[in-house]
Amino acid sequence: MDGWRTGQPWQGLRLNISYTFPVTTTARPTDLRINGARLMDRLMSLAEIGAIDGGGCARLALTDADRDGRDLVVSWMRDLGLEVTVDTVGNVVGTWSVGGGGAVMTGSHIDTVRTGGKYDGNLGVLAGLEIIQTVQESGWMPPRPLAVTFFTNEEGARYAPDMMGSLAYVGGIGVEEVLGTIGIDGSRVGDELLRIGYAGTTPCPAPAPHAFVELHIEQGPVLEKEGATIGAVTGVQGISWREVTIEGQSNHAGTTPMSMRHDPAYAASLIAVFLRDLARRYGGNQVCTVGKIDLHPNLVNVVPARAVLTLDVRNTDEGLLRRAESEITERLDALAAEEGVTITSRQLARFEPVEFGESMVTLVEATASDHGLSSMRLPSGAGHDAQMLARICPSGMVFVPSHNGISHNPAEHTDTADIVAGCDVLLQMMITLTTQETP
């Protein structure tokens, strides 16, 4: 058993097979295509871990289900003879160490929200495995290494911030801060990494790869609505997460006159309405969400003493995002005075908008065109690991359509033909990037 995971039971253990392929010196293979059936088989096998009613998955970061999913993916990496490393925050990288120089890397995440689907994140990781296996079987030897990774806690559903692992990978957050993070259930990241056997020793932050490209479902309705198969992602929206706590006066629901109440639940509802109105006023790419509200004591006949809610505010324009944040702060201050409550807030996560380099966006479009696939440019409304990697290397994203734009939902679905098309585009992009000195 390998030293990085001694003393831990393996889940889904498969035979480790060392493949030997003929070394060729032919030009890069432009007609190479992935094995779609094999990719779908892996996707469905991973989806069985943490499966929930409706066809979705629940693999919150660093839970037992996440561990089992990690074990399965690592076993597939080892089947392909990849060099597997685990860093100090649990990020896993499988590298086909051929050629020289920095690796062309792809990947995403395999953790999910509590009511997640089969494809979010998982597609990007398993597509990377499929691409490496396809290239290995072709006999063509890339001039640079190929690598596939999955990052820790991309979703942020158990620990804030989201994209935690990739942020640490690029040096945007310290390892000790990550390991000391306390989750919604009171657990600590460092303790959970040790418990599930993924407290690695590879240093973090890591050296920059040559380039990074992430394949992902759109998680929105635009590609399907416009009839495009491939999305050339121009960038990722800025994200502001805030937790707001409202302290009021708990009292009897029947005997307390409405005019004498200091009701945190009412104040929370006004905040939710304000955010909806703000998004409508700004228009464009502005979105605002109240995703969670907790009331205490949460009883039918008691005016609550406290409300805790989360605010998710996003925009592709940093200036507009800052203006929205300022308006929200002003409204919270005014509301506290109006309702006689105390309102405090703390930042859970804050990321500026990211623009991907023109050369990477153009490469997505050109590769799709070479495959006879329709494409369009669009920004991402969701956060992704690629936006973190863009801090240290040329990065880009390939989107494929989401049926009815549904994601973070067991009903999440992308047609197999679109999955295969996106993976074929990613395959040719990675082959091209291995031959470029400067992406």
Task: Give keywords.
439 residues; alpha/beta; Aminopeptidase; Alpha-Beta Plaits; 2 domains; 9-stranded mixed beta sheet; 4-stranded antiparallel beta sheet; 12 helices
Q: Helices and strands in order, then pairings?
A:
Layout: H1 36-47, H2 64-79, E1 83-86, E2 92-96, E3 104-108, H3 122-138, E4 146-150, H4 164-169, H5 175-179, H6 189-196, E5 211-217, H7 222-226, E6 230-236, E7 238-247, E8 251-252, H8 264-282, E9 287-296, E10 302-303, E11 306-315, H9 318-339, E12 342-351, E13 354-355, H10 358-370, E14 375-380, H11 385-389, E15 395-400, H12 416-434
Parallel strand pairs: 3-4, 3-5, 5-15, 6-14
Antiparallel strand pairs: 1-2, 2-4, 6-13, 6-15, 7-11, 7-12, 8-10, 9-11
Describe this structure in words.
It is built from 12 helices and 15 strands. The protein folds into 2 domains: 3-237 and 354-434, 3-Layer(aba) Sandwich (Aminopeptidase); 240-351, Alpha-Beta Plaits (2-Layer Sandwich). It has 439 residues and is an alpha/beta fold.
